[in-house]
Design goal:
Elements: H1 13-29, H2 33-46, H3 51-63, H4 67-80, H5 85-98, H6 101-108, H7 118-143, E1 147-148, E2 154-155, E3 165-170, E4 176-180, E5 185-189, E6 195-199, E7 207-212, E8 218-222, E9 227-231, E10 237-242, E11 246-252, E12 257-262, E13 267-272
Antiparallel strand pairs: 1-2, 3-4, 4-5, 5-6, 7-8, 8-9, 9-10, 11-12, 12-13
Length: 273
């Protein structure tokens, strides 16, 4: 962290502020951070528009993770020098750490592409916008109550789109898994509503039914390949069993048994896990 030095002559309070400021720098260089912070604050009391004192105080507070105080110091910097892009970035970064996403976004988006801080700001902006989407969907899921049309039929809330979605299951953490028959993919929708590919293993061919055991292993009825594929929570896939046109799967948590309907033979099959 760089400390801004200052050499000037003032009258009355300004002269005293300069002396206190220089003493604060000396203490910081001697690793007496707490006392240095106190003296930078005193210098600011003596000279409220002391930009260098505000700057150094903010930098030190950031370095010791006193984010609430650093935020207030940075606001004073912006008042004194609205074009201070470093201060804008640091305010945005602190607000992001504190969880104030909208506030962080408003400061970070003020940084132009030509600024040295732009790339770092853009990374945080992308994270904020993604998190806001997740929170919006999470709130939608939590707050949504089933509504009914004029005929009394329930109207569901759309959460995601897939190509030929088939099986669906929920793991112990509340994540949803959906099989795409045409894509040969198992998708995962996190508890925050984020959709991503969980498995696109070459073993998957026409996945239909899904079941999840108590250890969060996923079993997939691999209809086109006549197999049941097991996928671990880490995403590792293997053939669990050969079954003729497996269709629906059901896992009984109490008995630790997996049930499979075999469409080609019109049979129900049981596996003890």
């Amino acid at each position: 962290m760089s400390i801004m030095t200052f050499n000037a002559s003032f009258a009355d309070n300004e002269e005293e502020a300069a002396m206190v400021y220089n003493e604060a720098i000396d203490l910081y260089r001697q690793d007496d951070v707490s006392r240095s912070i106190e003296l930078f604050k005193k210098a600011i009391e003596l000279k409220p528009d002391f930009y260098e004192a505000h700057y150094n105080l903010a930098q030190i507070l950031i370095s010791v993770n006193k984010n609430d105080e650093a935020y207030n110091s940075l606001l004073e910097l912006i008042k004194l020098k609205p074009e201070d892009l470093e201060a804008l970035y640091n305010i945005g970064r602190i607000q992001y750490k504190r969880g104030y996403l909208s506030s962080a976004h408003s400061y970070l988006t003020k940084i132009p592409e030509s600024a040295p801080q732009y790339n770092s700001a853009k990374i945080l902006i992308d994270k904020i916008e993604q998190r806001q989407k997740e929170l919006d969907l999470e709130n939608k899921i939590k707050q949504n109550k089933t509504t009914y049309d004029a005929q009394g039929l329930a109207i569901g809330a759309e959460l995601a789109e897939f190509e030929a979605p088939s099986g669906i299951a929920l793991d112990s953490r509340g994540n949803i898994y959906v099989a795409s028959f045409l894509d040969n993919i198992i998708y995962k929708i996190s508890v925050y509503g984020q959709k991503k590919v969980f498995s696109n293993s070459v073993l998957l061919r026409g996945p239909i039914g899904i079941a999840i055991d108590k250890n969060d292993n996923i079993f997939v009825a691999n209809y086109s390949a006549n197999t049941i594929v097991k996928i671990t929570p880490e995403g590792n896939s293997s053939i669990f069993s050969k079954v003729q046109k497996p269709y629906c799967l059901f896992y009984d948590n109490q008995s630790n048994k997996l049930y499979v309907t075999e469409q080609e033979t019109n049979k129900l099959i049981k596996f003890d896990l």
